[in-house]
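Colleagues,

Please find the record for the two-part complex below.
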Amino acid sequence: MTKYNIWFFSSLIIALIVALPIITIFFSFFSETSNYFTVLKNTFLYDYINNSLAILISVLVITFLLGVISAYFISFYEFPLCKFFSWALILAFAIPGYIFAFSIIAFFENYGTAYSILTSLFGEYNYNPHIPKLDGVLGSITAISFSLFPYVYVLTRSSFFFQSNNYIEVGQNLGLSEKETLFRIILPSARPAIIAGLALVAMECLSDFGTVSIFSVSTLTTGIYNSWLSFDDLNSANQISFILLIFILALLSIEIYSRKEAKYHQPGRGFKPINKIQLSGKKSLLAFSFCAVVFFISFVFPVSQMLYWTFKFPKYIQDIDILKINLNTIYLVGLSSLVLVLISLFINYGSRISKSKILNYLTNFSISGYAIPGVILAVAFITLFSNFSDLINENTNLGSTKKLFIGSIFGLILAYFIRFFSLSFNGIKSSYEKINNSIDESAYLLGYSKIKTFSRIHVPYLKNNIILIIVLISLEIIKELPITMILRPFNFETFATQAYVYASQDLLEAAALPSLFLISWASILILFSSKYILSQKN
Amino acid sequence: MSKHFLEIQKGNFIASEKNKVNDVNLIIEEQGQIISLLGPSGIGKTTILRTLAGLQKLNSGKIFLKGKLIASSEVHIEPEKRNIALSFQDNSLFPNYKVIDNINFGKKRSNGNGFDLDAKEIIELLHIDPILDKFPHQISAGEAQRVSIARSLISKPDLLLLDEPFSNIDQSLKEEIQVSVKKLLKRINLTTIIVTHDSYEAFSMADKCGIILNQELKQYDLPYNVHHEPNSVEVANFLNKGIFIDVKVVDSECAVHRLEHDELGEIRGKLSNNFPSGSKVKLLLQPEDLIHDDQSKLKLEVVDRKFRGTNFVYTLKTIKGEHLPVFVHSHHIHQHEKSEKFGIKTPIYIDHLVCF
């Protein structure tokens, strides 16, 4: 029997808020088709889909190769700087695709960084025709692949770690060669983790807005953005969103299913950690070179490019109010984290003590926000609150409520809440589930009330996890572009929006400083949380 | 109202369709008694403890503690207000606190019983000293169980509930801890209910023992009586002490009752239940009831022999196909192999003739 108490209604409200964008898009899809959408359907829509799929498939292949090979080398072999690479490779998480895109453009463009290097090495000459042009779809694929491969790397590495040495030894005992062991034992048993990693990559790739927009590639996300911004047609934007959401939700299901399967590969009793093999000679050089090249391209290259520009064009250091952007970022991050963590704690606690099944379903439903791409969420958000405002306007004397939600910090935090509630809720939930129910019962039996049990047992236990969740939320918000771009208050800049605004005005060199700050903040947060990211629990 | 220390009246304890115990009537007359509840795993013993502690609601019936109604279908006093401590089977130590802090958590409520007991003494008694500064994940399951008992004791409850308290403790330490805990409980006069599936533990620790089988409290009696005079075939089978053989009551009137078995002949002793002479009954024959005697004319075939440390357990076969267990001390001068004949002292005399 479900109790309709404060926990039930709070969870219901949160679930509804988080589900609002999906509901809006769903209803928009069945509303009347506008002229623009009809035109779009006969012209660019298939280009959007084709480009999105072409980028998606290529990114999946590249991230698979980069992630699995590096995870394999690092998990099973010892070679120079192996330990360093084990955490250094996740620093690529600090480089959003759009910053990688700036770096590629700056490096390969006519008279760009590659040209300058060649000139300083070999003297003046027109090198431009000989420098490959990595732009458009190719550039997008490269940028997105190198910024997303850590998903595959982290999950695969974790799965490799869990593979008991016993299985490998049994394989060897049955006469399998090293290569056969890899293809017949190691990879098949890591398959769910690899698929889960690839599904995340695919979701992020389809959601990407910044990178494809910098390279002027028409995909579903830029289509949504253009429908809204250029044609002022929210309905079409939502209809394209619906198509994209179908892809994303299919991928989300694959990811959830794979993760469930991956659980069966967790070690039981008798687990023996892998005995790493010391490599030497050519093999050692191969492993080292592979990891070094991946690390160089994914992290050193964009950071160097941004540093180079920052110091080559020092005037932007004075022009950009970097202190204000820092404060804006801290303000957003602080407020959002506080709201997210407090509400996640509240709902988790309610779900724990009320033990209601309906409450569990509701909370599960409310975590769907993370699957919705930022652009979709922002456009749905605008649709919803514009309609809401019109409704209020028509029926009351309160005036427009648009300003309350659109172009306000409140609206921005609310959108972040919808997008990142899953991260925060699940993060706390995973830790909460480790506190056995009988621990609460023990506290009650020792005379502690529910509130005291929460403050004296739960909170101290969850403390580290809460800090980690704050770090991860901060990382996401610092890198977040489309929601902030679309919903921020006028003249309110974050590192991401400032960099994007400059880049879209063809002032790539001006985008370097905010990008560099973004990377620095993100790197610090990643290093702080790397112990967890690389711990075998993820 | 109840004048007893604890009284359960027609209690229905239900955790799930499978895990429930119905119609329980149980009385602990005086403070300081130790009661054990014995039964197979998953039968509902823990459900009784959890309900007594207030972690689950009583479905029907009444529970009185020190004369006060603490649970019924209408009344439910919250666990934190009952002053009942429960030491869980899985120990439930607070993971983010050291052992010493876990134990000190119990002090919060140590105002109830007021018995003379300090933390130092419990720590010494339960051999916890070397692990005080460790976290729960750094200690063994047995150590965690001891810490859990210590934490419960330090809260000085009116009633202590122990759920399989010694199940994870090393055999070498188990007996010593059982003896020490029992001594301590008696000294501080703390009423305790122990749930266990180990009959030796139940008998050695408790003043009274309850047997829970098939969703019912089948027998609640002194451990000696439960062992020697199980009140039903089910209890006897659960305690797994022997087998039932078909006998005829020859004389149930005299001081010494007499039974007759087709092959074993006359069996003498005291019938636990009244049966008229001439009735055919099933007699519980336990391994210690038959005595080996090479000179005896009554000989049965050996079909099995097991070494059990201090004893050999021989299994003998009657012509009717009954398999009778017999203990023989392992220092016995000679052994019998399978198929050999094995002599049994006659006439057979059994103190408690348990018949159904």
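The beta strands of chain A are 77-78, 277-278.

Comments are welcome before we finalize the supplementary table.
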